[in-house]
Amino acid sequence: MAMKETKTEPVIGLALGSGSARGWAHIGIIQGLEEIGVRPQVVAGTSIGALVGAVYVSGQLEEFSKWVQALSSRDVFKLMDLSFSGGMVKGEKLFGFFEANHRNPNIEELEQRFVSVATEMKTGREIWITKGPILPAARASCALPGIFPPVKYRDSWMLDGGLVNPVPVSPCRALGADVVIAVNLNAQLVGAHLSRTSAQEVEHEVTNKTERTLWHKAVDYLSKSDGENPTFFDVVASSVNIMQDRVTRSRMAGDPPEMTLIPMLEDYALMDFHRAKQAIDEGRRLVEENAGMIRSWARLG
């Protein structure tokens, strides 16, 4: 007698890539997936992808989405503590605020499997963090060279995970994913720099004399241009994005995901974190556009 065939749903993995402010698109993609009934059992994140992924698997995405959409350019600037040691922004104010306002559960206690990808500064090794408090694990992945300084995690200094694995498909596979949906933020890189619009917006919003002085110093150093030569942020952003794009192509050629979603945010500057709504909307649009294929891979309907 023939055995009855049972239908089993695959383990879905979500690989959230690096890409600075463009990473707010991850929020919309996750929200869109949940709305069509696809809840990834495995989430891997690199850099901004690690931060959004950590918020998601710890059950705080909706509150986080509302907060980032309410940020103005001045709010973003006030969270950036300028530094000239190891990176332009210390990150202590930003992540201190974040940790004070968000839960910080241990990764191994979560319902979904999660991994944050970082780069060990001393050896250049790719580090997968799958245990311990989730927010420090995410922060260890967010140390963009030239912008944020290295992060001390346990006994090692960590750099941005995007240096070695910008779209973390392989960690998803290692944690048991049968089907991987990858989000690649670095496939279209035109205009990835500090926009003049962002600087002007903050300058108009700032009223305190001390804040205006600090901002002017930052603008002079980071984005002053003679119209012919690239600015500091142009150089840093372009260099990092080109590197990440090449690494992504190489890694994904060897271990391709079942699906790749590419948010079209080519006009986003490196630090345009105040433009969250547009990025989130683009993420949701992508899922809606590809809903049929996503549901097919997830064997839904």
UniProtKB/TrEMBL annotation:
Keywords: Hydrolase, Lipid degradation, Lipid metabolism. GO terms for molecular function: hydrolase activity. The keyword Lipoprotein does not apply. Pfam families: Patatin. Gene3D superfamilies: Cytosolic phospholipase A2 catalytic domain. The keyword Hydrolase applies. PANTHER family: NEUROPATHY TARGET ESTERASE/SWISS CHEESE D.MELANOGASTER (PTHR14226), NTE FAMILY PROTEIN RSSA (PTHR14226:SF76). This is Patatin-like phospholipase RssA. It comes from Stenotrophobium rhamnosiphilum. The lineage of its organism: Bacteria, Pseudomonadati, Pseudomonadota, Gammaproteobacteria, Nevskiales.
